[in-house]
């Protein structure tokens, strides 16, 4: 008899690439406990039932960082399977409107320039977001 291997859980996540007036991008570091602890990421979270991606991103950023943002155009959608989890990341460009970002649900936050992102350790799925950002930066000088 063969053993049935169930697929890993699937999370659909809205992700924000938040820029400020200086052209910097906001990243946050995951808390050390839990999956992918200590790695840096672009903030966001799980889409709730009945919520659009844009609504999810606004809500999550307000809950996690205590700021208001404007959700802009779609950057990329990534489907990535880790050993323990499958994620679909729907990533949007966002603009910081008001509030001072606070690390409410993460260890640390930092504004960085696009060329500084290589200095930070990101989960595998986020590498494609960085590549898409670089591509979009080159096509919009």
Automatic annotation (TrEMBL):
Any single GO BP term: DNA repair
Record keyword Nucleotide-binding present: no
Any Pfam family hit: NUDIX_4
Domain Nudix hydrolase: 8-135
InterPro entries per record: Mutator_MutT (IPR003561), MutT-like (IPR047127), MutY_C (IPR029119), Nudix_hydrolase (IPR020476), NUDIX_hydrolase-like_dom_sf (IPR015797), NUDIX_hydrolase_CS (IPR020084), NUDIX_hydrolase_dom (IPR000086)
Positions bound to 8-oxo-dGTP: 30, 41-44, 126
Keywords (A to Z) from UniProt: DNA damage, DNA repair, DNA replication, Hydrolase, Magnesium, Metal-binding, Mutator protein
Residues engaged in binding Mg(2+): 44, 64
Family: Belongs to the Nudix hydrolase family.
Documented EC number(s): 3.6.1.55
Essential cofactor(s): Mg(2+)
GO molecular function: 8-oxo-7,8-dihydrodeoxyguanosine triphosphate pyrophosphatase activity; 8-oxo-7,8-dihydroguanosine triphosphate pyrophosphatase activity; 8-oxo-dGDP phosphatase activity; 8-oxo-GDP phosphatase activity; metal ion binding
Catalytic reaction list: 8-oxo-dGTP + H2O = 8-oxo-dGMP + diphosphate + H(+)
Name of the molecule in the record: 8-oxo-dGTP diphosphatase
Gene3D superfamilies hit by this protein: Nucleoside Triphosphate Pyrophosphohydrolase
PANTHER family: 8-OXO-DGTP DIPHOSPHATASE, NUDIX HYDROLASE FAMILY PROTEIN
SUPFAM superfamilies: Nudix
